[in-house]
């Protein structure tokens, strides 16, 4: 795994997202309502809008511009207008560090 530090665990609030760039890829680090941390592609597949500026609820993130929701575990859109998934990246927590492997997406092989 080629994971690298994306942020600290405490850098992301519950039900919020933080945009980071890793290897030239925009990634949204998201802490869902249960406190689990996810890493997904930051760009909405419908309108190239930053998902980290959207709304987090339970295990979903919603694009603020057009309302498409994406499942944080699978990257799949849950409603229109988006119909293509966003990449989901492996996350490892080591101490207070959130490590993300952007070279090996879990869902877009």
TrEMBL record:
<dbReference type="InterPro" id="IPR017941">
    <property type="entry name" value="Rieske_2Fe-2S"/>
</dbReference>
<dbReference type="Pfam" id="PF00355">
    <property type="entry name" value="Rieske"/>
</dbReference>
<keyword id="KW-0408">Iron</keyword>
<keyword id="KW-0479">Metal-binding</keyword>
<protein>
    <submittedName>
        <fullName>Non-heme iron oxygenase ferredoxin subunit</fullName>
    </submittedName>
</protein>
<dbReference type="InterPro" id="IPR036922">
    <property type="entry name" value="Rieske_2Fe-2S_sf"/>
</dbReference>
<keyword id="KW-0411">Iron-sulfur</keyword>
<keyword id="KW-0001">2Fe-2S</keyword>
<feature type="domain" description="Rieske">
    <location>
        <begin position="4"/>
        <end position="100"/>
    </location>
</feature>
């Amino acid at each position: 795994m080629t994971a690298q530090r994306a942020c600290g665990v405490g850098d992301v609030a519950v039900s919020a997202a933080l945009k980071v760039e890793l290897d030239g890829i925009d990634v949204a680090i998201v802490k869902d309502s249960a406190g689990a941390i996810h890493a997904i592609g930051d760009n909405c597949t419908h309108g190239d809008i930053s998902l980290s500026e959207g709304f987090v609820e339970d295990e979903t993130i919603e694009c603020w511009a057009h309302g498409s929701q994406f499942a944080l575990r699978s990257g799949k859109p849950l409603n229109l207008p988006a119909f293509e998934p966003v990449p989901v990246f492996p996350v490892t927590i080591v101490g207070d560090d959130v490590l993300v492997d952007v070279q090996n997406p879990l869902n877009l092989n």
